[in-house]
# Entry
Amino acid sequence: MHVSMQQARPLLGPTLSSLSSGHPPALRVCAVGGGPDDKKTLTREEEPEQYWQTASEKKGENPLKDPLAIIGIVSIFLPFIILAIAIATGVVDVNAGRG
# Structure
């Protein structure tokens, strides 16, 4: 089946003469998928467990010895502790919205 340029023109998009701005049409490149290749991607299931461990996990250390873990836990619970102290001392009135 042979398609002439006049028949294919609507499929190709606007021509240079049909553009009102005078700029040439942009080139669109679409890449879909890839061909079969011999490379295997690295997955957790295919690698031994030792490659996915941190140095402290290999040593068997407690994860809470890490200062960043302690900072994270404190930053989560500290606002609630401050709020509980403020409610207990009367700084925050929990009955303020009730008539």
Remarks:
- Residues 59-93 form one domain.
- The chain has a mean pLDDT of 75.
- DSSP finds three helices and no strands in the chain.
- The CA atoms of residues 69 and 75 lie 10 Å apart.
